[in-house]
Every structure is written in C-alpha cells, then in structure tokens.
Amino acid sequence: MKKLLFLFVPIILFSCQENKPKKPVINELPPISDAVLETAVIYEANIRQYSVAGTFNEFTKDIPKLKKLGVKIIWVMPIFPISKTKRKATGGDFASLIKDPEERKKALGSYYAVSDFTKVNPEFGTIEDFRTLLNTAHQNGMYVILDWVPNHTGWNHIWLKTNPEFYTKNTQGEITEPLKADGSPVGWADVADLNYDNKGLRKEMVKEMNYWLTQEDVDGFRCDVAGSVPTDFWQEAIPQLRAKKDIFMLAEAWEPALLKDHLFDMAYSWDTHHKMNAMAQGKENVKAWDNRMTQIDTLYEKDDILMNFITNHDENSWNGSVKERMGNASEAMLALSYAAPGMPLIYSGQEYDLNKRLLFFEKDTIPKTKGKVWPLLAKLGALKANNKALNGGKKAALYTRLKTSNNESILAFLRKKDTEELIYMANLSSNIAVFKPEFSGVFTDALTGSKVVLKRKKEKRFAPWEYHILIK
Hints:
Blueprint: H1 2-19, H2 34-39, E1 41-45, H3 47-50, H4 56-61, H5 63-67, E2 71-76, H6 101-106, H7 127-139, E3 143-148, E4 152-154, H8 159-162, E5 191-193, H9 199-214, E6 220-223, H10 231-242, E7 248-251, E8 266-268, H11 270-280, H12 286-299, E9 305-308, H13 313-319, H14 322-326, H15 330-339, E10 343-347, H16 373-386, E11 398-401, E12 410-417, E13 420-427, E14 433-435, E15 441-445, E16 451-454, E17 460-462, E18 467-471
Parallel strand pairs: 1-2, 1-10, 2-3, 3-6, 6-7, 7-8, 8-9, 9-10
Antiparallel strand pairs: 4-5, 11-12, 12-13, 13-18, 14-17, 15-16, 15-18
C-alpha cells in the first residue's frame, strides 16, 4: 500500500497544479517612483470605445504606439462586469424600459455600476487577455492603474445579498442610491450607495483592491469620486495597499486633504480645466488663469501633483468634445495642459482628433485616423520627457508668471529647473493681441524649430489663439 501511495501522490499533485488558475507572467519593470512622475503623461483607456471590437486585445495592439506619445501611465476605465439590474441607456432611462428587445441589448450600462470587483467584463475579454495587456504595457515601460469604484456598486453585486449592512439605508430600511447632503438623489439610480461606517465593508474593499496588486500585479488605482468616500477610510486603506508594493494613486477629487501624508499621489485639477473652458469660450480672460495659479499655491503643498486635462470620459460624453467646448483655442489649451505644472492627460480618441461625444451606456467607436493632434502630442510628449523645465511631479519645475503690457489676453510664464528653462506664451483670446513683453531673449520654438526674438518693450502681435513654447 505504501508503494501505491508513493506512486499516486505525484499524479494527484500534478492534477491540482493543472486546475489552478494561471498566474500572470510578471515582466520586470522598476517600481513606479517619484522620478517617473516628473515626466509622466497619463492615458485614459476606454476599452469599450477604443476599437470596433471593444476588447482588451485590440487596445493591447496599440500600446507600443502610445509609447511614442510619451505615455508612462495607462489608466484603464473600469474593467469589471456591469450590473444588469437597473442598467441605464442613453437618455437616463433604465434599459428595462426599452420595449424593443434588440434595442434593449444595445444598452450595456455604465462601467461604474460594478457587479463584481474580482472579475473582468466578458464584453472586453478574459482575465488572460487583461494580463496580456498588463504585460505588454510593462514591456513598453508603462504602468497600469485600474479605475476603482469605491463609493457604490451595481444593483446585482453579491454584497446586496450576502452583506446588506455594507449599504446606506433610508428610514424604511431600504438600500438607497447615492444621495446629496440634503437627502435628494445625486442622479445615479443605477448604483447602490456603500456605507463606510461599516468596518466589514472597509476590510472587504481593501482585500479586493489588494487582490489586483498582489495577484495581478497592477500598479495602482484611479479612485472614482474619491472625495465622496470618508478620508479616514483612505487613511486606513492606502498604507495597507502601499505595504504590498510601490503604487500610484489618482483621486477623482480636488480636496487637498486627500494628497496629504502620502495618501493619493495626484488629484484632478478640475478648476484649472473649468478656467480653460471659460477662456476658450470668451467668458473669462487670462486673469482667471492667474487667479487659479494663486489658488493652487494657497490650497496645495509644493509636492502635490494635479492632473491637467482638456477632456476625459465625463467631459466628452456629457459636456462635449474638445472642439465643441474649446473651438479654435483647442491647440493652445492642449499645449498649456503640458506646459503648466502637473501631469497631462490624454483621453482615448483625443490623439485621433475625436470630434464627437462618445456614447456612455452603449457601444461607440473612436476614429483611428491621425490628424493634427497626434504629431502635436508626440512633440509635447518628447518635450515633457526630456526637458526638466516641464517636470511636474513632487519636485516640479518652478512656475513664474512673466508680465507683458497686455496681461488680460497674453499668458506668458517661465518654467525652470536646474539649468533648463522654458517659456509658454500665448494669446488666449479670439482677437488679435498687441502687446509689449517685459522680458527679452532669442529662443527656439520647441514645436516648429523656428527662431523667435523677443525684445523688452518692443511691440508684438499675436493672432487669435497663437501660442509658442520657447526654449533657449
């Protein structure tokens, strides 16, 4: 009998190994660091709309192309299965209200109505497909962060059955959608609100985030509506996550408290974005920009990082394409998002001159034809990567406002770090701007290679939305 046991044990062990899920292939990539953040460009990947197929595999094919744009961090919009219960369709109605079954099938729902935080949406592919995406990014020197949805879940998440105490309830004991401070609905009826007063929820949320760090080797998270989750949860959770590996944490929030004490690495520069929209639309002038820079200095610490953007998934789908919102100012504002302190964002399709609002709840597709924006992004990405004057991390290059005789239309500022200097100079108005700079020098336009001579007090004329990035 002993002999027989000896013979069968290897067979049993081999069988167990065969049944285990395959571990991801880990490609060697140095841990994400503060040095990486100084020169990083972040890319928001909308897998559903990125290609006709809308799959991980189709996006993975293009990762080497994104490297040419200077992308170092890929933020992948939620990859998790979407709840079918109360899923929404365009117009805000529930898909269940659509009478035509074929039309109802088209309503895929919101990425942010998650039904399971530990699985991938079969719409996008398999976990193996995601692992290939992750490994391809790592092979190309890029880090991947997942879009995490900590504030709510979809209505058929398992917790609604197993742990109803994880959710916010009204006076009748019914689980609610997210509510405003006054008790009125936020407008997200397709999701159920989580209650962070519950310690069990906190523990489970950290556990499921740790799964993606330790088992799948992702490099961090972009946390949806992070400011709506209690700050003390992040104070409890993020140190536990950072104990597992070096990670990058992006908060969809503006609150400075979320950046303190090594919590989140970066927050949204929402107000900067709003000022850029307002200037592009002629509602405000350059003084609004100056006030915003003063506000940043007041609210944030020197090593805080803010994300600059002219579009993202929310802005595109709900407020309009870049051209729709910014018109002829689009290029000047894009260049400004790179030249200003912080980290610039590229949203899927932006690199292909996307000029439509992508459907949010249904399948849509971005264009894949290169126009004006791709070569501009390539130049800006190279400049961001190679010129210390555009460092935008925890040891960012200095920002100094440069004066002219027309400070309402002309924005000019100097970025400087060590011996490297760079000047952004633009007419941020729809009219010809006549002005006299209060500085001088002989420069090269970093984007065109042309020579630019500026003389103090000598009159210059800039066409509407004309801009230059000048280096010596």
